[in-house]
Specification:
Layout (H helix, E strand, L loop, with lengths): L10 E2 L1 H7 L5 E5 L2 E5 L5 E5 L1 H7 L6 E2 L20 H10 L7 E5 L5 H12 L5 E4 L2 H7 L26 E2 L1 H9 L5 E4 L3 H5 L15 E2 L16 H7 L9 E4 L5 H11 L5 E4 L2 H5 L11
Length: 291
C-alpha cells in the first residue's frame, strides 16, 4: 500500500510543503473558520469556504468544514468533538485514509488547524501536521495560490483508535478546581477575555487556578509562525513541569494551539477540555474568576 510523505514533527514549514506539494497520498486541508456577528447580534462563526473559493488557497488544498463536518452539530456547545463514526466519515469525505499524510492550515494564527490536528491525534492518527504560519506565511512568501473548489480524492474507510486520555470533561476539571485531582489548567483565550474585561459569554473570566497562555501569543506577529522553543517554554514556564496539563478556551479551539505547542515542547500528558468555557459558564454553580 502506498503511503504519503514521512512527517518528523507535528509542524511542517512552508518550504517542506512546497517541496512535497502534489505528492502521492498527501492531503492538504484548509480548516479556516471566520468569527462573526450573526444577524441576531450574537457572536458566532461562519465557514471559511467562501474565502477558500474566492480569496485563494494553497494549490490542491481541500476545504475542511470544522463547523458542520468535523464537529458534532447535535452537540450542546459549538465545535463539540464528533463521535468516532462521525470523525471517520469526515476524514474519508476529504480524501483521507490511514495511509494518508495530512497537512492542515488556516488563515488565522493556527488555532483552527490545530483543532483538526488534535482531532486526528485523539482518534489515534499521528500522520498529521500543522503548517507553520499557515496561509498568511505562505502568501507573504509569494507562493502560488489557487481559487475555486478542489474535489477530494476518493478514500477508503478511515479507521479510528480513540485516545480518551486526550480529552478532559467538566467533572474532571471540577475535581482539579476542588483540589482532588492534580493537573494544571491553561487558558488559551486572549488576555482581556481571561481577565473578564471582554468577551461574549454569559459570565466572563476564567476557571479558578488557571494560567493564561493565549493562542495568539504563541506566534510571531508578522509571519504567524510559531515562536522558537525557548520563547514557547517561557510562555508555559508556570506549568511546563506539571505532570498533567488541561488546556481550555471558549470552545476548545484556541486550546488546541496550546496543546500543539506543549506537544512540540515534549509534554506527553496534555488534555483538551472540549466543552471549555461554553460548558463551564452555563452551569451557574461553576466558579468563574474575573480579575
Amino acid at each position: 500500500m502506498t503511503s504519503g510523505p514521512t512527517l518528523s514533527s507535528p509542524v511542517v514549514s512552508t518550504q517542506w510543503l512546497a517541496d512535497h506539494l502534489g505528492a502521492t497520498k498527501l492531503v492538504v486541508l484548509d480548516a479556516t473558520v471566520v468569527p462573526s456577528v450573526l444577524p441576531n447580534g450574537k457572536h458566532g462563526y461562519l465557514s471559511g469556504e467562501d474565502a477558500f473559493l474566492i480569496g485563494g488557497h494553497i494549490p490542491g488544498a481541500v476545504f475542511a468544514d470544522l463547523i458542520d463536518v468535523f464537529s458534532d452539530v447535535t452537540g450542546a456547545f459549538p465545535f463539540t468533538r464528533p463521535s468516532a463514526t462521525l470523525f471517520a466519515d469526515a476524514a474519508a469525505s476529504v480524501g483521507i485514509d490511514n495511509d494518508t499524510t495530512v497537512v492542515v492550515y488556516d488563515s488565522a494564527v493556527g488555532q483552527w488547524a490545530s483543532r483538526i490536528w488534535w482531532l486526528f491525534r485523539a482518534f489515534g492518527y499521528d500522520n498529521v501536521a500543522v503548517l507553520d504560519g499557515g496561509l498568511s506565511k505562505w502568501q507573504a512568501e509569494e507562493r502560488e495560490t489557487d481559487v475555486g473548489h478542489v474535489e477530494p480524492e476518493t478514500a477508503s474507510a478511515f479507521v479510528t483508535s480513540e485516545r480518551p486520555e486526550l480529552w478532559a470533561d467538566k467533572e474532571y476539571v471540577e475535581r482539579v478546581v476542588a483540589g482532588t485531582e492534580s493537573a494544571a489548567l491553561v487558558c488559551g483565550l486572549p488576555p482581556a477575555e481571561f481577565s473578564g474585561e471582554a468577551g461574549h459569554r454569559s459570565r466572563l473570566g476564567h476557571i479558578p487556578g488557571s494560567v493564561s497562555v493565549p493562542a495568539g501569543r504563541l506566534v510571531e506577529r508578522e509571519s504567524n509562525a510559531l515562536l522558537g522553543e525557548t520563547a514557547l517554554r517561557e510562555k508555559f514556564a508556570p506549568v511546563i513541569d506539571d505532570e498533567k496539563i488541561v488546556v481550555y478556551c471558549g470552545a476548545g479551539i484556541a486550546a488546541a494551539s496550546d496543546a500543539l505547542a506543549l506537544t512540540l515542547l515534549g509534554h506527553r500528558n496534555v488534555a483538551v477540555y472540549d466543552g471549555s468555557l461554553s460548558e463551564w459558564v452555563a452551569d451557574a454553580a461553576a466558579p468563574v474568576v474575573a480579575a
